[in-house]
UniProtKB/TrEMBL annotation:
Keywords: ATP-binding, Helicase, Hydrolase, mRNA processing, mRNA splicing, Nucleotide-binding, Nucleus. Its main location: nucleus. Residues 106-277 form the Helicase ATP-binding domain. GO terms for molecular function: 3'-5' RNA helicase activity; ATP binding; hydrolase activity; RNA binding; second spliceosomal transesterification activity. Belongs to the DEAD box helicase family. DEAH subfamily. PRP16 sub-subfamily. Transmembrane segments: none annotated. It comes from Hyphopichia burtonii NRRL Y-1933. It catalyses: ATP + H2O = ADP + phosphate + H(+). Its EC number is 3.6.4.13. This is Pre-mRNA-splicing factor ATP-dependent RNA helicase PRP16.
Length: 787
């Protein structure tokens, strides 16, 4: 009772009838599936299941309680699925909102070079548009003259490209990777002869432009989900402005949620908008009366209120709940708290609790898609992943914390911070809409209506180009000979400090010369589809001095996947102690190498049996999917190495690998200022780039060697601000190496001079020599800034 009181006072139950969402939902044309037939069948199944113990049970000759129950349940589920299964895949296509407007849509696209297509999630933009164009003869496979015209459809996310290509190949009744295929980084599932519809990530299209600036193989390009405004979306949009002038016959279709659509129209000189009428149900929006103190607690209370108020013993589950949380930790706490509170209740109605976030192992992720059980309610506690990229059917209630964990790059500190920030109004609408996919729903927002109307929430999300490290994209644009970045047509230009920082970073690592032009190292680097430091690392490892490309390829592959270590909260200690087994004390990079090599050994031992490997991974708290992917990435990198005739050689010692890491990462350097003498405080480092920032080894780092001395100098892969400034993926280096490989960098920045004095005090550098270099480098620095 107390629980309920607390909840009802914090939520003001007023649907907001004038909200845009409610209005657009009312205006949408609804197609309500024939639920009657479905219900009837379910009822029959239920009736039958009560007979199971007798007639059917006897016929089947089943004895024993459990089996008797297993059989009817299966039947029950099959019947529930039946109405959907009997719809042929073609019938399903015809029911999509896009199908109803197909003719007009094709006409709009035929008559214009650029068309902006707007439509609700699920209207068929991603799966149907490309097929329509293909069916209308916009594409042809490779002909005798070596010409082809294919339809490309870009996706912001890898997973989407893969799953959509699979779905479309099924709809077209062909084998995936033949007529329909996909390309994501390190994986090409297309056929050069046959493929006519190609799903690809935006990053891949950018790389294709690098190889063929006119994209001659394409007749149409669909930029899907452009409203997400990823860094690559924005760069592609800018490139298309010129490309479309060179290729008058190329069609560009930009699909977008309502948000951002007008910006795209203006950007392409008044390109027409085509709106696919939606199929959504109205969603009532409830705001909190006061802003909540603890969003985890409020969300838990809200979920329980929904669950208890809408359940009774006799009633079926009336709909599932989707909670938007910020990240893994919050999700785990929410799930635990929910379980706890439920246990405190006397015989509560059944509630299944599922967490979902991107680093959750795939088999656990799949669980949320398990078949609907009419008697049990499901609550899915998710990150932003459930906002657009993942759809759980049967959601009727949405609980929205209104928060999102966002990576923001700080160019002054050269550091990414992971911050919990309010979502934009547009995101909030999208989240609420998830409750209205299969029937009318309710969205409970754990923030006030006021918050959406004053400055607390942006109207639109901040595009990635304004909050991320741009080095990678700058290198790409430089390779595309876009010399004057000031004149590049950005939809929203990146802030100046972000731009200069990225150029400066590229200069520091030697990819740009003093005039801002690509150096030969820079152009070699652009052959690798990865961030500049990693490409440089690979190129350096081929030099005879380091001679360790065999190892570096593995390290780079392991850095290109999400963490291989699985650390569920309730078994964190166990996971940590197992991880110890793999630790190489002076380097996280070498630790990753070690994990990979042991996995390789298992691969041989187990004769590549997925089952055996999966058992081994579970036992060792390693993520099998990540390891498989690391292996695929490595194989792809080997192909690139061969293409450019780069040697793959085994190192002579671990030190050589660390030297190579030092040479590639010298600009990301820290020096120990306070050791963890007692063993219970954390060692403190100072950033040698800006001299002032205190940083710590990430708690999971191999270098947290208990009572051992923390190393004096370390290079790091990334800086991340969470609760503290953490260096992630760290390797101890010898200061002598730093002077050898990074001297000029530490002569450039005046702030770091004082730190260099330490090195001079170590007598590791000749003072006069250093000052001469410093003057020279200052000159270089000025050159770069001015050009
Ligand atoms: O792009 P948009 O959100 O407009 O819709 P879509 O992705 O083309 O999806 C249209 C329909 O295709 C969905 O409602 C799903 O029923 C189905 N679909 C699917 O079954 N499997 C996929 N991987 C993608 C879509
Ligand atoms: Mg889509």
């Amino acid at each position: 009772d107390q629980l309920m009181k607390g909840i009802s006072s914090s939520i003001k139950v007023i649907p907001d009838p004038e909200s845009e969402l409610a209005i657009s939902a009312r205006q949408g044309s609804f197609v309500v599936k024939d639920n009657k037939a479905k219900k009837e069948k379910a009822k029959q199944a239920k009736d039958r299941s009560s007979l199971q113990g007798t007639a059917l049970g006897n016929v089947l000759g089943i004895e024993g309680k459990t089996e008797k129950f297993e059989e009817p349940n299966k039947e029950d589920e099959d019947l529930r699925e039946a109405p959907i299964d009997t719809l042929s895949i073609q019938q399903q296509r015809r029911q999509l909102p896009a199908f109803a407007v197909r003719k007009d849509l094709i006409r709009a696209i035929s008559e214009n070079q650029v068309t902006i297509v707007i439509g609700e999630t699920g209207s068929g933009k991603t799966t149907q548009l490309a097929q329509f164009l293909y069916e209308e003869g916009f594409a042809s496979s490779l002909d005798k003259n070596g010409q082809k015209k294919i339809i490309g459809c870009t996706q912001p996310r890898r997973v989407a490209a893969m799953s959509v290509a699979k779905r479309v190949s099924e709809e077209m009744n062909c084998k995936l990777s033949e007529e329909v295929g996909y390309v994501i980084r390190f994986e090409d599932r297309t056929s050069p002869q046959k493929t006519v519809i190609k799903y690809l990530t935006e990053g891949i299209l950018l790389r294709e432009i690098l190889i063929d600036p006119n994209l001659e193989d394409y007749s149409c390009i669909i930029m899907d989900e452009a409203h997400e405004r990823t860094l690559s979306t924005d760069v592609l949009l800018g490139l298309f402005r010129k490309l479309l002038m060179r290729r008058k016959d190329l069609k560009l279709i930009v699909t977008s949620a309502t948000m951002n659509a007008d910006r795209f129209t203006r950007f392409f000189g008044d390109a027409p908008q085509f709106t696919i009428p939606g199929r959504t149900f109205p969603v009532d929006i409830m705001f909190s009366k006061t802003s909540c103190q603890d969003y985890v607690e409020s969300a838990v209370k809200q979920v329980l209120t929904i669950h208890l108020q809408n359940s009774s013993k006799s009633k079926l589950n009336d709909g599932d709940i989707l909670v938007f949380m910020t990240g893994q930790e919050d999700i785990e706490v929410t799930c635990e708290l929910l379980k706890e509170k439920l246990e405190m209740l006397d015989d509560p109605p059944p509630l299944d609790i599922y967490p979902i976030y991107s680093t959750l192992p795939a088999d656990l992720q799949k669980k949320i898609f398990s078949k609907k059980n009419e008697f049990r309610r499901k609550v899915v506690v998710a990150t932003n992943i459930a906002e657009t990229s993942l759809t759980v059917d049967g959601i009727k209630y949405v609980v929205d914390t209104g928060l999102i964990k966002m990576k923001v790059y700080n160019p002054k500190l050269g550091m990414e911070t992971l911050q919990v920030v309010p979502v934009s109004v547009a995101n909030a609408q999208q989240r609420s809409g998830r409750a209205g996919r299969t029937g009318p729903g309710v969205a409970y927002r754990l923030y006030t209506e006021r918050a959406t109307k004053n400055d607390q929430m942006h109207l639109q999300p901040i595009p990635e180009i304004q909050r991320t490290n741009l080095s990678n994209v700058m290198l790409l644009l430089k390779s595309l000979k876009v010399d004057n970045l000031q004149r590049f047509p950005f939809l929203d230009p990146p802030p100046q400090d972000l731009l200069s920082r990225s150029l400066y970073d590229l200069w520091v690592i030697g990819a740009l010369d003093n005039f801002g032009n690509l150096t030969s190292l820079g152009s070699d680097m652009s052959n690798f589809p990865m961030e500049p430091t990693l490409s440089k690392l690979i190129i350096l490892s081929c030099k005879n001095e380091f001679h360790c490309s065999e190892e570096i390829l593995t390290v780079v592959s392991m850095l290109s996947i999400p963490s291989v270590f699985f650390r569920p909260k309730e078994r964190a200690q166990e996971a940590d102690s197992i991880r110890e087994k793999y630790v190489i004390a002076e380097s996280d990079h070498l630790t990753l190498l070690n994990v990979y090599n042991q996995w390789q050994q298992q691969l041989v031992k187990s004769n590549s049996s997925y089952k055996k490997l999966s058992i081994w991974c579970d036992k060792n708290f390693l993520q099998i999917k990540s390891l498989i992917r690391a292996r695929e990435i490595r194989n792809q990198l080997v192909l690139i190495m061969k293409k450019y005739k780069l040697p793959i050689s085994k190192s002579r010692s671990d030190d050589d690998v660390r030297k190579c890491l030092c040479a590639a990462y010298f600009q990301q350097l820290a020096r120990l200022i306070k050791n963890n003498i007692s063993g219970n405080s954390q060692a403190e480092y100072v950033n040698l780039r800006n001299k002032v920032m205190t940083m710590y080894l990430h708690p999971t780092s191999a270098l947290n060697g208990g009572t051992d001395m923390a190393p004096n100098f370390v290079v790091y892969h990334e800086l991340l601000l969470t609760t503290k400034e953490y260096m992630s993926c760290v390797t101890a280096v010898d200061p002598l190496w730093l002077l050898q490989y990074g001297y000029y960098f530490y002569g450039v920045d005046e702030k770091t001079q004082a730190n260099l004095k330490n090195l001079i005090d170590f007598e590791l550098i000749d003072k006069k020599d250093f000052e001469e270099r410093l003057n020279f480098d200052k000159l270089r620095y000025q050159d770069v800034i001015s050009s």
